[in-house]
Amino acid sequence: MTAAVGVLLAGGRARRMGGGDKCLRSLGGETLLARAVARAEPQVGTLVLNANGDPSRFAGYGLPVIHDVVEGFAGPLAGVLSGLEWAATERPDVAYVATMPTDAPFFPGDLVGRLADALRRDGAELACAASAGRSHPVFGLWPVRLKDDLRAALVGEGLRKIDVWTARHRLVTVEFAVGAIDPFFNVNTPEDLAEAEIHLKRSAA
Fold it and tell me: What is the SS3 string spanning 138-152?
């Protein structure tokens, strides 16, 4: 599954963080985006960033930047669809896209491998992560062949909730253990960012 296209999701408006590019906020001396790139790159064959607006602000990261193919900030599913359609055009040899949001600085280094293993084992179409009994569908493995189905749901039906769409397909959910912090802890607010800083300092001690 290292041939999968990885899509880092950064297309939201970060309203709870006060707006702007949340992924460019600093954590432990690095941006959230830099941390996401470092975790994601070894797990996939190609890595792209899903972000809206002027792509030049991400030039220093050396990633292709793809905007939402559905206008109006349609949520994470728009980022998933953007990745699927980009992969179909730019990497037609790749069958799966793995998505990871950029505001989760501690996501597992074996995320894609474990999702792929579960997908094969269960004969599923889609795979997503979970921890502490709660699913995290934005950490998912998606078949490129379902891009037209997803576009019809997003554009034709106006569907926005990930779990509503995934429920229409054979989905396997993979549980990840929680250690000192939930591996899918996400930074939505300044308080979350401060909590992540505390965790980094404790883990480095």
Answer: EEEEEEHHHHHHHHH
